[in-house]
Amino acid sequence: MAAKLTIDVLSLFPDMVEAPLGGSILGKARDRGLLEIRCHNIRDWTTDKHRKTDDYLCGGGRACC
Q1: How far apart are CA 42 and CA 40, in angstroms?
Q2: CB-based contact 21:43 (threshold 8 Å)
Q3: Which of 6, 21, 36, 45 has the greatest number of C-beta atoms within 10 Å?
Q4: Where does residue 15 rank: exposed (0-12), middle (13-18), buried (19+ CB within 10 A)?
Q5: DSSP labels for the chain?
Q6: Closest C-alpha among 24, 50, 46 to residue 35
């Protein structure tokens, strides 16, 4: 049997990434055990109570100073 390829996807919307994979050629590879795709929610690693993932503003104005 061929080696299994594992792909980790980091996303704010892992369900949206996961949905199209079932009906494509990637879905067939998953069914045959050739591919593993693991979708992770970036918010799982946040540290504040609002699970904020945005960085501070930059690009001019007083927000950067």
Answers
A1: 6
A2: no
A3: 21
A4: exposed
A5: -PPPEEEEEEES-HHHHHGGGTTSHHHHHHHTTSEEEEEEEGGGG--STT--------SSSGGG-
A6: 24
